[in-house]
């Protein structure tokens, strides 16, 4: 296909791509807050992107009312065009992904952090037991139409209420402080929640509705974070855990992500207190697609691994009420 078939200078003729994605979400939900939750960013970040696209176009796309917004005439025009265009791109992307995944017997996705610290080792174990089965792992967190993307399974963190999928609960998730042994060697022991006020706390700088913050932690344990507390922020959970392993500070970590790192000695729990999460990890599959025998075998195997994980950790992690 010759380059003359493509429209030239699109970069100079359309708003930034990220702003268009944010605008589509806000227009669809008629809400900045709901769009921020879907996109897993802060409401302030959503507002900045909308201001950017309005500045680019020189018009207001939304009328702001008390606790409500609505599209202007120009906003409605833009919303229709963006929805159609991005929808077409998404469908083509799904088709390409489906075409390139035909060699895999099993396609599964999860977040990068869950894949790195829990799922990859289990898939390696499965491959060792069933070497003829080809498993492809895609590490991304957004919940997409599984059947349209060619995915057979996805691991997601939530309450199990997603539409269009069958959700099998794998395990819950206690939230606990962890750090490397070298951090304790350098800074001394941390014997309880009150000692964390003097520690370097590793934090996520971006908004994540599923993330338990240090503010949440200290609220449960009856104190508030000092404004002068030493924080080290990261915009990626993977980088945050890597920093904890290096000895840069103390991280709040889900027990499922931490368990292999604790078993290997890379991380330790400085004390036993933890918080219970309302969310759990689920293995999802398209509700309207029947599994092939090899895929059903993988599902049963992975759920058994999850049950073993829960059994091995039963009684090891205490909740906040027990420890206080």
Characteristic key phrases:
two-stranded antiparallel sheet; 10 strands; 3 domains; single chain; globular; alpha/beta; Arc Repressor Mutant, subunit A; 324 residues; D-Maltodextrin-Binding Protein, domain 2; 13 helices; disordered C terminus; six-stranded mixed beta sheet
Description of the molecule:
It is a single chain. The model is unreliable at 314-324 (pLDDT under 50). Strand 1 and strand 2 form a beta hairpin. The protein is α/β, with parallel strands linked by helices and 324 residues long. The protein has helices at residues 10-13, 17-29, 32-39, 43-57, 73-100, 112-129, 146-149, 181-187, 214-220, 237-246, 255-263, 293-313, 320-323; strands at residues 62-65, 68-71, 106-110, 135-139, 153-158, 165-178, 201-204, 231-234, 251-254, 275-286. The strands form three sheets. The protein has a six-stranded mixed beta sheet with strand order 4-3-5-10-6-9, with helices on both faces. It has a two-stranded antiparallel sheet with strand order 1-2. Strands 7-8 form a two-stranded parallel ribbon.
In short:
This protein has 324 residues and is of the alpha/beta class. It has 13 helices and ten strands. 46% of the residues lie in helices and 19% in strands.
